[in-house]
Structure formats: structure tokens, C-alpha cells
Design the sequence.
């Protein structure tokens, strides 16, 4: 492989990796905390209006 070919392959791999990176974050979540919200170790998430599957996953 020549240096030019190797450089082209590296650039192609870098661009594909960069293009696919946002897809990995597509299902991230965020919460807006209101006054008095608990954010410590003792806080609990209470699912509402959710469906629990047989394996315990919540959707």
C-alpha cells in the first residue's frame, strides 16, 4: 500500500466513524429538575405510563 492509499483509507474510516457517532446517542434521555427535586443516592425513579416486558425492561 502506498502512503496516499493508506491516508485515504484512514480518512475514510475516520469520516464513517464520525458520521455514525450521533446515531449512538439517538436514544439518550434528559430530565428537567424542578424545585425540591432529589438528586442524591436516595432518589428513586418511578416509572409512570410505561410497559414492563417479560425480561423486566421498561419501555
Sequence:
Amino acid at each position: 500500500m502506498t502512503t496516499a492509499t493508506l491516508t485515504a483509507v484512514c480518512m475514510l474510516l475516520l469520516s464513517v466513524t464520525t458520521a455514525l457517532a450521533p446515531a449512538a446517542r439517538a436514544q439518550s434521555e434528559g430530565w428537567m429538575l424542578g424545585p425540591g427535586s432529589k438528586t442524591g443516592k436516595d432518589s428513586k425513579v418511578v416509572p409512570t405510563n410505561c410497559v414492563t416486558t417479560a425480561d423486566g425492561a421498561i419501555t
Q: What stands out?
A: The longest helix spans residues 3-24.
